[in-house]
Design goal:
Strands 1, 2, 3, 6, 8, 9 and 11 form a seven-stranded antiparallel sheet that branches. This protein has 378 residues and is mostly beta strands. It has three helices and 26 strands.
Amino acid sequence: MRSFNPPAARRGRLLLAAIFAVAALAACSDSHPVAPRETRSVPHGVAPRVIQAFTCTGSRAGGVSCAPVRDRAGQGSAVILGGGYISLASSNYSYDAAMEIAQYDVTVKNLMNEALGSPDGTVADPDGIQVFFATGPTVTAGTGTVTVANPDGVGTFTAFNQPYFSYHEILGKNQVSAAKTWQLNVPSTVVSYSFGVYVESDVQTLLVINEVLANPGGTIFDANGEWFEVRNAGSRTANLSGLLIADSSASGRQPYHVIGSSVPIPSGGYAVLGSTADTTLNGGVPVTYAYGSNLQLANSFDAIKIARVYGTDTLTLDRAAYASAAVSARNGISRELINSSLDNSNVDGSNWADASTTAVYGSGGRGTPGAQNSAFVP
């Protein structure tokens, strides 16, 4: 059963970053899947590489000024986001002149619909939300060397020997972490300095199974005309590449199919997954990705599942099931989720409805593949 989280090991996961140069920073019965048909080695589905930077200056006295800069095209080999996705804030700044220690408490705030610190909104990232020093600290006025005094550890993120602080929490939209005290060794000869930090964490892929046509009806064969639609309810672009899809009929769990090509879905956008993208065979459905015969939707007692590889196992990102052919598999009529913020686990239930009689596509099918559902209720 999908757990919706309101607006997902360090390896292969999303880097969400804000670059700050600062002195004082102002589940279900089929949960154990059959191995994929194609391969057991599947990369994570991740978002495109993006950089959002903030240039900031700070002084030993505690003043700081930060301003965002334009994305630097071509410089983002890692997935780095910031600004409207995540923020850092500081408080309780102090400077111990005898120990030459600058100290402040730093919090992380998640501004996305997706959960931060988790691949699915429930399972915690074992490394936590890590804030690591990508550049500096660099003295910009005065003399001396500034270093991080109390990091939680030193790791390899974008380079060797980068100090970091870890926040072991899962943050939903607009949630703020507990404060963590950062200390820097700042000699009294230093007037001002700067540094850059990135926030690295696993981030939930917030995909919603939003529409299902299990029974094409008419002259369209099931093997050609079945499809389902996925909506990206997250704040950032999601890519289905490397994710796993499967159905579970009354005859038992079916092997996963690995999505083998790039299928980007912008925030609020849709992707239609069907057995074939040939509109002369599928009744005119604008299929974004064709899975062939790997999924075969029964007219009753079936479920559609989207998952991702995580370590040596898989994590369910979304699952929608139905039991009644009379409700969810009427000839040529799709079932539509009335709002993607609702629990979509039961396609037979009241959160779903038949596509409108005026919502017609292709050769006469009823549904809204690739568009807002006709049954949508704000």
